């Protein structure tokens, strides 16, 4: 096997990174990338990540020619065009827009959950902005309620961009916000998540304890 020609700037705690890793495993491409561990925060960008990526966001993917792709949605699309199996992002039609919209809902959960994490773990308690924190949590609850009401059958139909994104968002809530106890309000989502969590791609990308 040849050495990986691409580098993925990676942190196992990031749900955005996890989406990419899950798709790589689901499509059999995990050996194509070397992982470069990094921990950028909102106040400490990582010098390696910044090269060719002024946003400093992870995941970022350095290609063999030195160019850099970001963010996670771009990298997912890139890798989904690089395997021979069924696309995990539908190429066109209603399915494309619906699956991407479900993925965007999951992205909304991740954005809010990561912001809450930064606010509560990095800022001193006296500086926490309670109404802002509450609205981030409300956003998460609204999305979960909508998925419970309207999307379970779609999520269960195949493990594609929508399902991968929702699974990684739920994994991040469990990892950083176990106090949210979302399962009692959304039992169908919880049952779906219990099943997909057993997939090798989810097991192999669990955030660190
Ligand atoms: C975290 O530790 O929760 C985290 C790390 C990297 C990106 C996003 C979240």
TrEMBL record:
Q: Which Gene3D superfamilies match?
A: 1.20.1050.10, Glutaredoxin
Which CDD domains would you find in this protein's record? Answer: GST_C_6
Q: Which InterPro entries match?
A: Glutathione-S-Trfase_C_sf, Glutathione_S-Trfase_N, GST_Omega/HSP26, Thioredoxin-like_sf
Q: Which SUPFAM superfamilies match?
A: GST C-terminal domain-like, Thioredoxin-like
Q: Which domain of life is it from?
A: Bacteria
**Residues in GST N-terminal domain copies:** 4-87
This chain belongs to the protein called: Glutathione S-transferase family protein
């Amino acid at each position: 096997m040849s050495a990986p020609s691409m580098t993925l700037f990676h942190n196992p705690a990031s749900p955005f990174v996890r989406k990419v890793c899950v798709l790589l495993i689901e499509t059999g491409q995990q050996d194509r990338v070397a992982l470069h561990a990094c921990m950028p925060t909102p106040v400490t960008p990582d010098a390696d990540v910044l090269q060719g990526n002024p946003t400093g966001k992870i995941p970022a993917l350095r290609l063999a020619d030195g160019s850099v792709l970001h963010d996670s949605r771009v990298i997912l699309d890139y890798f989904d065009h690089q395997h021979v199996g069924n696309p995990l992002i539908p190429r066109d039609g209603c399915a494309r827009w619906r699956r991407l919209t479900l993925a965007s809902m999951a992205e909304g959960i991740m954005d809010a959950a990561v912001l809450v994490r930064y606010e509560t773990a990095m800022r001193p308690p006296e500086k926490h902005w309670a109404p802002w924190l509450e609205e981030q949590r409300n956003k998460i609850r609204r999305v979960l309620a909508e998925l419970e009401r309207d999307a379970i059958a779609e999520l269960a139909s195949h493990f594609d961009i929508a399902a991968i994104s929702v699974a990684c968002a739920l994994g991040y809530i469990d990892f950083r916000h176990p106090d949210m106890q979302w399962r009692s309000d959304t039992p169908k989502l919880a049952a779906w998540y219990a099943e997909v969590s057993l997939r090798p791609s989810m097991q192999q990308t669990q955030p660190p304890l």
